[in-house]
Design a protein that fits this description.
By secondary structure, this protein is of the alpha/beta class. It is about 35% helix and about 15% strand. The protein has 12 helices and 12 strands. Helix 2 packs across helix 9 and helix 8 runs parallel beside helix 9. It comes from Nitritalea halalkaliphila LW7.
């Protein structure tokens, strides 16, 4: 395993553009089929009302956005949405809940049943539910969970400029808790929040130096939403996105580099460049939780134009099957950190 430094990552990222994407494409072809891309569908199983103050998120209860809170979906409704996604070509479903952390109780039991039901459809099941304990991670594993998403968001240094209600170390602790199971890890971040190049590279180096590094790394471009503290941020250019994808590919050769939020502002040609530079996974469907995403018909047309085939489920890692015996809940009440500092722009939006 290569140990990467910030200087080495920055040197890669700043290579002449065509040299960078050539190197990334070479690494990509050595580890992946360049003509296959995984299609994932993100289902918001519990929308809005989140107590966190993430400056990019329209689901934060403290900000005045158009997102309306919705209760936890039923298992039957989630299964129906998963079947529609599967029919459209998705091999993975990610179930996202606007929670700070997992809490033992009826709602978590309902999520575990969702995982069991969707995994029976021969689909990879991912969850993003916030912070969780080792025992909660074990119970998700026993339910048949394939992957758990928990993004580091940015560098440790810039993180405190975006979020004040949870600590960066708690993010890392959750990732370590997932690694105590056989569940694969999905963790990446967002660019375009006002961070520096050093912040972007620090985030990638943090992920790349994990042993092992995440099996999936989402690269998101901020989608500014009215009412959030970051509503006025300038859009990320396609060249910035391609450079991030290419650098992530070189630093983490075997991971699935996931082209996530921000695709609605990318041309078909721009997305093709991302695929060439090493992106081999996308989220499909007209929404990513609450932000816009290209329609599945647009993605299908793009795949046909490029000769790309959807990746089948479990091509990269063996399937997870639900255990015959499931561990009981412990009724845990973990005390996750609350750093306590305030972010002026977040507080300003809260007061409006």
């Amino acid at each position: 395993m290569t140990t990467w430094t910030l200087a080495a990552a920055k040197a890669l990222h700043e290579l002449p553009f065509l040299e960078l994407i050539h190197q990334a494409a070479t690494v990509h072809r050595a580890h992946h089929d360049p003509n296959k891309v995984q299609i994932s569908t993100l289902i918001s199983i519990k929308t809005g009302g989140c107590p966190e103050d993430c400056g990019y998120c329209p689901q934060a209860a403290r900000y005045h956005t158009e997102v309306e809170g919705e209760p936890l979906l039923s298992v039957a409704r989630v299964k129906a949405q998963a079947l529609r996604a599967q029919a459209a070509g998705s091999s993975r479903v990610c179930l996202g809940a606007a929670w700070r952390n997992v809490k033992d109780g009826p709602e978590f039991e309902q999520v575990l049943e969702m995982v069991r039901e969707v995994s029976r459809l021969n689909m990879e099941v991912c969850c993003t539910l916030g912070m969780l304990t080792p025992h909660q991670a074990k119970r998700l594993e026993e339910a048949g969970l394939y992957a758990y998403n928990h993004n580091v968001d940015s560098s440790e240094e810039y993180y405190k400029e975006i979020i004040s209600t949870r600590a960066y170390e708690d993010r890392l602790e959750t990732l370590r808790n997932v690694r105590k199971t056989a569940v694969t890890l999905c963790s990446g971040g967002i660019i375009g929040m006002g961070e520096s190049l050093e912040d972007r590279m620090s985030m990638l180096v943090r992920l790349a130096n994990m042993d092992p590094y995440p099996e999936s790394v989402p690269i998101n471009a901020l989608v500014p939403v009215e009412g959030t503290p970051l509503e006025g941020q300038a859009p990320v250019s396609i060249f910035e996105m391609v450079r991030m994808v290419a650098t992530a590919r070189i630093l983490m050769p075997e991971t699935q580099v996931r082209l996530s939020a921000g695709r609605t502002s990318m041309s078909p040609e721009g997305q093709a460049l991302c695929f060439y530079a090493g992106a081999n996974s996308i989220f499909a469907g007209d929404k990513l939780l609450t932000t816009p995403n290209p329609d599945i018909a647009e993605d299908q047309a793009l795949f046909r134009a490029l000769g790309i085939q959807p990746q089948a489920p479990y091509e990269k890692h063996a399937p997870r099957k639900a255990a015959d015996i499931v561990s009981p809940a412990l009724g845990e009440k973990p005390k996750w950190s609350r750093p306590g500092h305030q972010i002026p722009r977040n507080e300003e939006k809260r007061r409006r």
